[in-house]
Amino acid sequence: MKAEQVIPILRIFDYRKTVEFYVDWLGFEIVWEHSFEENTPVYMEVKKNNITLHLSEHHGD
């Protein structure tokens, strides 16, 4: 079996600081975000060129 793409999931702790770092500083773009309700953990995908990362505020899953 050959993996076509690997997408790491990285834990985040502060949404605002995450956007500041990944988007404003490193130049990633937010592809999508998901949250079940307002004020619940965010799960998001960011992308820059051929690098895709998933960023999650969820813990203990």
UniProtKB/TrEMBL annotation:
Top-level lineage group: Bacteria
GO molecular function: dioxygenase activity; lyase activity
Keywords of this entry: Antibiotic resistance, Dioxygenase, Lyase, Oxidoreductase
UniProt-recorded name of the protein: Catechol 2,3-dioxygenase-like lactoylglutathione lyase family enzyme
Gene Ontology biological-process entries: response to antibiotic
UniProt-listed InterPro entries: Bleomycin-R, Glyas_Bleomycin-R_OHBP_Dase
Gene3D superfamilies: 2,3-Dihydroxybiphenyl 1,2-Dioxygenase, domain 1
